Amino acid sequence: MSTLPSPLGFSVLVHSSSFKFNLAHFVTYHTFRERLHGHNYTLSLELFGPSISSDGYVIDFGDVKKVCRSVCKEINEHVIIPEKSDCLDIRPLPSKPDHIILTCEDESIFVFPKDDCYFAPIAHSTVEEISLMLYGKILEGLGAKNLVKRGIEKIKISLSEAPGQESTVEIPVEEVSKQERSGGDELGIR
């Protein structure tokens, strides 16, 4: 019987037709604002480690799928509101406290029911910042300490807003776990 080769490392890639959500948004920054529009986003996740755990897994696909589906469901069919934007004034609508009014730097005004909004701890509703926000939610769902214990060193999340338009972010899990232990904001976007 031959021996198994010594691998350089392992990764698991998880994507599913259920890792999708719809968001309406517009990007705004100083002197610029897009028109309000929407995307049908799709998500995939890759986890990297030098070895497999004693149970034979890098991580159980079922655990990853459960977290990703939950995150997608939470934000699906909303208007994303970037709470950290320096170009938006976000306030309750005085005549209807269950609505918000967004006033843009260019003086455009939008009114939305609060329940239709997803208030995101980001400055811009770009696919890059949304993917970073999702990374934080997925990491929270999987547990950074659990991932470090399993030997997972890095997570890569890819988020597509349209065919051929995708953002990918990679962050070492140990770095995030250290910040989590120190009580710091693990992703720097909140």
Automatic annotation (TrEMBL):
Compositional bias of kind Basic and acidic residues: 175-190
Pfam family, one: PTPS
EC numbers, comma separated: 4.2.3.12
Cofactor: Zn(2+)
Keyword check for Repeat: no
GO molecular function annotations of the record: 6-pyruvoyltetrahydropterin synthase activity; metal ion binding
Signal peptide: none
Pathway membership: Cofactor biosynthesis; tetrahydrobiopterin biosynthesis; tetrahydrobiopterin from 7,8-dihydroneopterin triphosphate: step 1/3
Keywords: Lyase, Metal-binding, Tetrahydrobiopterin biosynthesis, Zinc
Family assignment from sequence similarity: Belongs to the PTPS family.
Name of the protein in its database record: 6-pyruvoyltetrahydropterin synthase
